[in-house]
TrEMBL record:
<dbReference type="GO" id="GO:0004674">
    <property type="term" value="F:protein serine/threonine kinase activity"/>
</dbReference>
<comment type="similarity">
    <text>Belongs to the protein kinase superfamily. NEK Ser/Thr protein kinase family. NIMA subfamily.</text>
</comment>
<dbReference type="Pfam" id="PF00069">
    <property type="entry name" value="Pkinase"/>
</dbReference>
<dbReference type="InterPro" id="IPR008271">
    <property type="entry name" value="Ser/Thr_kinase_AS"/>
</dbReference>
<keyword id="KW-0547">Nucleotide-binding</keyword>
<keyword id="KW-0723">Serine/threonine-protein kinase</keyword>
<keyword id="KW-0418">Kinase</keyword>
<feature type="binding site">
    <location>
        <position position="53"/>
    </location>
    <ligand>
        <name>ATP</name>
    </ligand>
</feature>
<protein>
    <recommendedName>
        <fullName>non-specific serine/threonine protein kinase</fullName>
        <ecNumber>2.7.11.1</ecNumber>
    </recommendedName>
</protein>
<dbReference type="InterPro" id="IPR017441">
    <property type="entry name" value="Protein_kinase_ATP_BS"/>
</dbReference>
<dbReference type="InterPro" id="IPR000719">
    <property type="entry name" value="Prot_kinase_dom"/>
</dbReference>
<dbReference type="InterPro" id="IPR051131">
    <property type="entry name" value="NEK_Ser/Thr_kinase_NIMA"/>
</dbReference>
<feature type="domain" description="Protein kinase">
    <location>
        <begin position="23"/>
        <end position="207"/>
    </location>
</feature>
<dbReference type="InterPro" id="IPR011009">
    <property type="entry name" value="Kinase-like_dom_sf"/>
</dbReference>
<dbReference type="GO" id="GO:0005524">
    <property type="term" value="F:ATP binding"/>
</dbReference>
<keyword id="KW-0808">Transferase</keyword>
<keyword id="KW-0067">ATP-binding</keyword>
Length: 207
């Protein structure tokens, strides 16, 4: 069994507590190559429900883990209705744990699949509202000199009739992006600048 398979095979039981009793595991709600996502209860904040993402340990070396924690600490200071709120970041069993909003509506990619499967369609007015919300969230990111770099339906979450931009793990400041040549993004949603290895700009997120 590989290290990835070993760490992905580790699960936490319902009712188990993490971070000195602050987060109570309610149930597992997602899994991917990055690790697992749990619905948790934040016992120190009026039992609010949060999403807890536990990353596979060996996807990050120690320096990368510290950089990820620094990045999340930056992102959790953001305050916009249309961006996933990051509440906390800590280590557990030598793995990075990220605490964010819990969006009961899932992501837009799953919603599109569900509608297509049932031969349904979205109302034009609903699409217009969602697009305006997404643009508001992007505008907020860009006003703080940050580019998302991975806009796609799977990174847009639905919560109480609101869309929220999430999975900000690839988001970086414009200055740091221009100093780095590291590839980032999802193949089917890459902007021309990234494909051609040119500098990225705020408009790259609109693509």
């Amino acid at each position: 069994m590989s290290d990835d398979e070993l760490y992905l095979s580790i699960s936490y039981k319902n009712g188990e507590f993490l971070k000195h009793g602050q987060y109570k595991i309610l149930n597992e709600i997602g899994e991917g190559g990055f690790g697992k996502v749990y619905l948790v209860e934040d016992t120190k904040n009026e039992s609010e429900k949060r999403a807890l993402k536990i990353l596979t340990r060996n996807l990050l070396d120690n320096d990368e883990l510290l950089n990820a924690i620094d990045e999340i600490n930056l992102l959790r200071d953001m305050d916009n209705n249309f961006i996933i709120k990051y509440y906390d970041c800590f280590r557990h069993d030598h793995r990075a744990c990220l605490v964010t909003n819990y969006c009961e509506g899932g992501d837009l990619d799953d919603k599109i699949y569900e509608y297509k499967k049932n031969s349904q369609h979205f109302e034009e007015n609903q699409i217009f509202i969602w697009v305006c919300q997404m643009l508001d969230g992007l505008s907020y990111l860009h006003s703080r000199n940050i580019i998302h770099r991975d806009i796609k339906p799977a990174n847009i979450f639905l919560h109480k009739n609101l869309t929220k931009l999430g999975d900000l793990g690839l988001a970086r400041s414009l200055a740091s992006i221009q100093k780095s040549s590291k590839f980032a993004g999802t193949i089917n949603y890459l902007c021309p600048e990234l494909i051609e290895n040119n500098e990225l700009f705020f408009a790259s997120d609109i693509w």
